[in-house]
Amino acid sequence: MESTHRNLAQQVVHELGKKIMQGTYKVGDSLPSEADLGIEFNISRTATREAVKMLTAKGLISSRPRQGIKVVASKNWNLFDVDVLNWILLGKPDLYLLRHFLQLRLALEPEAAFLAAQFAEESDLKEIENALIRMKDATNGQDDTHEADIDFHQSVLCASNNPFFIQLKNFIATALKINIRFTNRMIAVTVAEYQAHVDIFEHIKNKEPQAAFDSAMVTQKATLDIVNKQIVELESKKT
Amino acid sequence: MESTHRNLAQQVVHELGKKIMQGTYKVGDSLPSEADLGIEFNISRTATREAVKMLTAKGLISSRPRQGIKVVASKNWNLFDVDVLNWILLGKPDLYLLRHFLQLRLALEPEAAFLAAQFAEESDLKEIENALIRMKDATNGQDDTHEADIDFHQSVLCASNNPFFIQLKNFIATALKINIRFTNRMIAVTVAEYQAHVDIFEHIKNKEPQAAFDSAMVTQKATLDIVNKQIVELESKKT
DNA sequence: TTTAGTCATTTATCATATAAATATGAATAG
DNA sequence: CTATTCATATTTATATGATAAATGACTAAA
Predict the structure, then answer these.
(1) How far A149 CA lies from chain B's nearest CA (Å)?
(2) Which of A25, A65, A121, B13 maximizes the CB count within 10 A of its CB?
């Protein structure tokens, strides 16, 4: 195993999780037996089993006597688990995955903005404003635009003061990272996008839920439309 | 442990998970040490550790040498995990939790209907229709209304053909169950509600995304408004 | 051909031992 | 008296080896 010799089980969880999301082990495939995994990673069966149990808890695999350890159907995967999302990021996301992310974002973010306009505390507003300032600073090269952009989206989710929306911070972050990868990680966030964010913030601050919702909806829908068109194009090329 | 002597670790996971969601162990609290848990449940430390690892994977606890096993902040809980949702159901949900569920449902379900109208396959439509038929049958006492109702909502999610929406089936099911508990589990789904469902289905079938979205939105918003009013009432009583 | 039973393989659990991490409090230095 | 260092005890982390239970595959009998 790695150098550190700490949290071996956790490391194996990540190795196997990555391999599953990258398709090294596909749905229905059997993983090596506990004994073999132990040999492969040079750890005891105890640690191996703990790793297997953690992946089971995240819904990626099942393990039964005689049948061995198998990757279960992807509908059972805990797609909103932090680790799983990060492993998705390490895979090779395609346009369809990007669309799936955007479709859920379109559902979530306008409503989150709506709720933020209703329930945001002073501290929540400060967080959002902070992210906006960092986005503006980024145009002067003082900060990473994309990172500040992600912070903006996450802080709006938090401002909803709804634990379920807040839990989806990781989902949104992953969605944005994949989006960035597909557009071009070098291209900074545009002025137009920044202005759209400012609009959303203003509506939240002024406690105008519907206006906040609409502003968020417009930008989301625009992004999704672009990807939808790209997919149509892609599919027409195929045939 | 129980009679069966199979999957001891899994049983302990459920016991502890329930206790955490019911507040027996609160956020920040320490659980008994591995050794003590082993004694309490009459299982080996190995099995205990595997249970602890599974709960760790679900984001409920952390376990570090000398520090012991502690319930982590609820923002780290995997609220969309099937098990966690079921444990929530075993707790004592209040109006605020119900509102949080409804707020996310309001975000998800109209968009799911929108997507279903775009992407539903024939088989998906059959599933939805099937649930509707069962709802109608239920008025004659042949079936459980609520169960068929849950099936309807879940089948619309599936029809979106978006894995993220599909993953949220358990969330919606839990939300509906809590909703049923709050209204009155004896009261059957009304004819009006049934008709609203039929409308949504028709729009999906006719591939009218926006109409499907609007229909779903109306019913959702109505439900949320009622709960919001109840909360306002509750809070005015307090002061 | 079917059925019942045997067998081999793999996970599930247990018991015990040692290593590593770390909170706590004592000892020490300033 | 305060801050820092250090020893120690407690708890988790890992390893090892042994036994139990589950189950797919094969075999033999009806």
Answers:
(1) 21
(2) B13
